[in-house]
Amino acid sequence: MSFANSLGRVLKENIYADRDFPPFNRVSMDGIAISHRVFEEGQRVYKVEGIQAAGSEQMTLSNTQNCIEVMTGAVLPENANVVIPYEQTVIENGIAKVSITEVSHFKNIHKKGKDKMQGDLIISKNTLISSAEIGILATVGKSTVKVAKNPKVMIVSTGDELVEVNQTPKDFQIRRSNVHTLVSLLKRKGIESKTTHITDNKEILKQKIKGFLEDYDVLLFSGAVSKGKFDFVPEVLEELGVEKLFHKVAQRPGKPFWFGGIATSVLSEQDVKNREKNNTIVFAFPGNPISTFINCLAYFYPWYQKSVGLKLNEVTAILSEDVIFKPNLTYFLHVKLSYKFGHLIATPIRGNGSGDLASLIDADAFIQLPNDQDEFKKGEVFPILSYRSF
Amino acid sequence: MSFANSLGRVLKENIYADRDFPPFNRVSMDGIAISHRVFEEGQRVYKVEGIQAAGSEQMTLSNTQNCIEVMTGAVLPENANVVIPYEQTVIENGIAKVSITEVSHFKNIHKKGKDKMQGDLIISKNTLISSAEIGILATVGKSTVKVAKNPKVMIVSTGDELVEVNQTPKDFQIRRSNVHTLVSLLKRKGIESKTTHITDNKEILKQKIKGFLEDYDVLLFSGAVSKGKFDFVPEVLEELGVEKLFHKVAQRPGKPFWFGGIATSVLSEQDVKNREKNNTIVFAFPGNPISTFINCLAYFYPWYQKSVGLKLNEVTAILSEDVIFKPNLTYFLHVKLSYKFGHLIATPIRGNGSGDLASLIDADAFIQLPNDQDEFKKGEVFPILSYRSF
What is the Cα–Cα distance from B272 to A356, expressed in whole angstroms? Predict the structure, then answer.
């Protein structure tokens, strides 16, 4: 893809220096270029032979008793090996007088090849591309770059109680919000996705999912994964040969949760050959807004990071107060984050349970409290899943 | 704008609850809904009257000795006030037998208005919109929202030594990289920008800038701000009536730096009436890649944050080793960031000065060391400017 569009993508090739950096002895201050030997011999007055502009071919100092005016970014003239900045020079009638008495060899010159030599590795494969990498790609002339392919994602909402955002729900209805949350959580990682809604009807669900398994790399479901009469998703996925990897994670919020891939047993020989293509990953999250939100951060994000070749960076924070949580479940607690003296502090925000999307507004992240502990003390450190950027 | 496109923008209106949240007594577990009073009286066997699905109108438990099967997300039936989950119930031939002996009033029911009451403020004006806000906007039916207008930005490179990224530079030339770095640094904040290159000719520069001052909210220059013979930018801006706010900041790298706005003295009466529109902000950065990079993080970012109404969040980190820097300048030192036990640790990376863009690859941020100190000790805390997200 064009390097200019690659911000936030993962580089899939090594990037090498196409020439030395700097590619020439580069002037790094505006001033005059002279011979260091002549300066050392005590000469402080120089006749100006000409001006070496940035972007012009290298000039030659024909008489080393003289000087050439040089601009930042210009090539150092032949026979010169030190630059005295204008701030330390007075130029009148074509004569430059230098006001300093000491200067080191190659001062104010960025020497050819000092940063990198031609052929040096500059950016490694599997680097997440930031603005720094964009600048380097431009510098070495990589106008197109190989990046990790993003998965084709379909996000499916279920639940007959849902109406569209621009509709007015009846008393027993609510608006469809989880798909929008998921789309934006994916967009934050640079992943585009499509969305659809399927009515709580097993046959329709099965038919649609069958098509999606052929066309998409990832399916994300919100709702219909629990024990309800109309929770057909796990059943339909199993009937379609999607291997259940786990269901019901011991965590709060977000207990029922389904995750799968395509089972090889139901694949034809041809399918097996195309396995990578057909190996759709399914994440089926509960319909509760907070559960869906946490599960996306806790399961989809790390899966995605690994799939594009990124290392997982665990971020930890310090609890600002004691927390007690007795059930034998991993507990994702809403926290507000703050940086104080280089410490990342997590202050618990008490929500009203897994339906309370509004509590997310006051928080920045979830802190992940492990199930083998009941009491979590002020000052203890745990991993966090943040949904805001700092 | 459409709420679905508002991720990363700054909200410019308060968002209120359009109804109670939850809008009805919402069932939060699949199971049976019964009368708490009847349960307390010792009854453990209930005839099933029907099924209350999510998205269906509220049913009524006609006989409080009976039960109604209820699905997560459904309205709690009239006359019921507790839900026993399927996990604690056996249903055979239309009769549900409950296996527990204690349950509290309204257990497994998310009560109407518990999270928010109709009319409550949910999201305040000037909030940076994350996925959490997207979910809330969907929930309350705000299909379109007011967000801060992003500035119209033109990024101008100067310097005749520059060639395009897809060209092969001659020995004395380099590729144009700073504009691409700046475009991506702005994109990271959700700001689109245009770019152009102007040759080192004062008249052409003046004519072009004049037009840009009329058409853009922000101009960013890279190069031509120093003391060189072809460094016309500060001169031209002054001639065009752009008020110089400061030039040459005492910092390394990135010393020459120009920042301005339009001086009211050169505005016509009509212009003054339209002042907000004409009040173009100019940031003119030096041509060195690192200087441009730092100046964008240190000056443009905070200006932008303030202009859209966001508070500035200072992030600080802990130095991992001693640093000595004697010049009386603010020193922006490349650092690698890591989170250890809730501490944000900044490990210095030694670059080769302001031309060495490659050193950015090994680092994540700059740590800002103040000018009133010469020695910076391991364990001391200073602000950081990060260009990677964690």
Answer: 49
d(CA B249, CA B229): 21
CATH superfamily of B316-386: MoeA, C-terminal, domain IV (2.40.340.10)
A123 close to B (CB below 8 A): yes
User: Does B172 contact A133 at a Cβ distance shorter than 8 Å?
Assistant: no
Largest CA distance in chain A: 96
Residues A199, B54: Cα–Cα separation, whole Å: 11
Could you tell me if B71 lies within 8 Å of chain A, comparing CB atoms? yes
B355 and A115: CB-CB below 8 Å? Answer: yes
Residue with the two structure tokens 């928080």: A363
Question: How many whole angstroms separate alpha carbon B366 and alpha carbon B376?
Answer: 14
- For a pLDDT cut of 70, what percent of chain A falls above it? 90
Q: Class for domain B26-110, per CATH?
A: mainly beta
Average pLDDT of adjacent 10-residue blocks, chain A of 390 residues: 95 96 91 96 96 90 96 93 95 94 94 92 96 96 96 92 92 92 95 93 92 92 73 86 78 71 49 57 86 91 92 91 92 92 91 69 94 94 88
Hey, are the CB atoms on A173 and B352 less than 8 Å from each other? no
Query: Could you read off the pLDDT of A13-61 as tens digits, one per residue?
Result: 999 999 999 999 999 888 999 999 999 999 999 999 999 988 889 999 9
Measured in degrees and rounded to the nearest 5, phi and psi for residue A204 equal -65, -45
Nearest to B283 by CA among B229, B355, B234: B234
Does the beta-carbon distance from A116 to B166 stay under 8 Å? no
For A121, the closest chain B residue by CA position comes to: B358
Interface of A with B in 224-283 (CB under 8 A): 226-231
- Tell me the shortest Cα–Cα distance from A358 to chain B, in angstroms: 7
Is A174 in Cβ contact with B359 (below 8 Å)? no
Hey, where are the domains in chain A?
Answer: 3-21+115-139, 26-110, 153-307, 316-386
Q: What residues of B are in contact with residue A359 (Cβ under 8 Å)?
A: 115
Distance from A226 to chain B by nearest Cα, in Å?
8
The nearest CA of chain A is from the CA of B240 a distance in Å of 25
ipTM: 0.88
3-state DSSP helix/strand/coil % of chain B, to nearest 5 = 20, 30, 45
- For chain A, say whether B78 makes contact (Cβ under 8 Å): no
Q: Any CB–CB contact under 8 A between A86 and chain B?
A: yes
Identify each DSSP E strand in A30-183 by its residue range.
Answer: 31-34, 45-52, 67-70, 82-85, 89-92, 95-98, 109-110, 121-123, 153-158, 162-163, 174-175
CA A204 – CA B133 distance, rounded (Å): 32
Q: Say what the pLDDT of residue B230 is.
A: 67
Q: Which CATH number fits domain A3-21+115-139: 3.90.105.10, 1.20.1560.10, 3.30.870.10, 3.40.50.300?
A: 3.90.105.10
Q: The domain at B153-307 falls in which architecture?
A: 3-Layer(aba) Sandwich (3.40)
**Nearest-CA distance B39 → chain A (Å):** 22
B69, B172, B187 member nearest A56 (Cβ): B172
- Amino acid, single-letter form, for residue A178: N
First to last CA, chain B: 28
Task: Please answer yes or no on whether B342 and A316 come within 8 Å at the CB atom.
Answer: yes
Task: Please indicate if any CB of chain B lies within 8 Å of the CB of A114.
Answer: yes
Count of beta carbons in the 10 Å neighbourhood of residue A100: 13
Instruction: Give A351-361 pLDDT, tens digit per residue.
Output: 665 557 778 89
Q: How far is A211 from chain B (nearest CA, A)?
A: 26
Q: Which residues contact A197 (CB under 8 A, 6 or more apart)?
A: A156, A157, A158, A162, A176, A179
Do residues B120 and B104 touch, judged by C-beta distance below 8 A? no
